[in-house]
Amino acid sequence: MISAGLDFSGPEAAFSVCDGGKLLFKGYKPMSGRDASELAIWIKDSLASAGLDFSKVQEWICGTGPGSFTGLRIAAALITGICFERENSKFCGVPTAIAMAMGHNLSQGSRIAAIFDGRKEEILLFEMEVSDSGRILHNGKTDVLQVASADLSAYSFLTAFSRDREALKSLDSRFKINYIEHLDAENLCVASSYSATDIKELIYIRPAVFVPPKEIREI
Asked: How far apart are the C-alpha atoms of 140 and 115, rounded to whole Å?
């Protein structure tokens, strides 16, 4: 089965296409200012480079975060639109954090976490566990912690994006953080067999804040 994984949880889009266990395409696209106007065209061209088009992809997997509110919604909406009224295409979500932690030699039963820059001297934490079969699963715990006082000693493995290294530097002297430059979107395809979620269940660790609209000005 041909599957495609798309993640737009941060300042770049990550896209991969797999045929069973074989990787057909992997690429990244910087998304300056969250401008996604060329995202669908880039995906179309990426599929074409692998000799495919939208109709050939049977499963689409969206990275559901944690991440940018705007980016996550754009990716989820795009995949939903691509699959609209395509009977041979299905779609689902997989937490971005699970894909971040894959590919490492992790002990069964260990507690692990992905951490993100939460701004304002805070970090966002997404906790996971390694099952007896070696699969990485979310255990339902998320948290917002102060960088200065965060105690991460309970975790045997921590992962974060390199783009957050400066914000997390005060943690580096206390805990080992495994930084990754890019998300391997093919991990979304692999994890979809055991960690699939509803594509609408996007992960926002810090609740969205309501900002009242400004008063209408008469011109």
From this structure: 15
Cα–Cα distance for residue pair 127/116, rounded to 1 Å = 12
Backbone phi and psi for residue 114, each to the nearest 5 degrees, phi listed first:
-105, 135
Distance of alpha carbon 101 from alpha carbon 7, whole angstroms:
15
Residue 206 falls inside a structural domain:
no
Same domain as 104, residue 171: yes
H-type helices in the chain, by residue range? 39-49, 69-82, 96-101, 165-172, 186-195
Q: How far apart are CA 130 and CA 110, in angstroms?
A: 6
**123 contact partners, CB below 8 Å, separation of at least 6:** 115, 116, 117, 144, 145, 146, 147, 150, 167, 168, 171
Residues 105-151 have pLDDT tens digits of 999 999 999 999 999 899 999 999 999 999 999 999 999 999 999 99
Q: Using one digit for the tens of pLDDT, what is the confidence trace for 158-208?
A: 999 999 999 999 999 899 999 999 999 999 999 999 999 999 999 999 866
212 in a structural domain: no
Predicted TM-score (pTM) of this structure: 0.91
Residue 202 lies in a domain: no
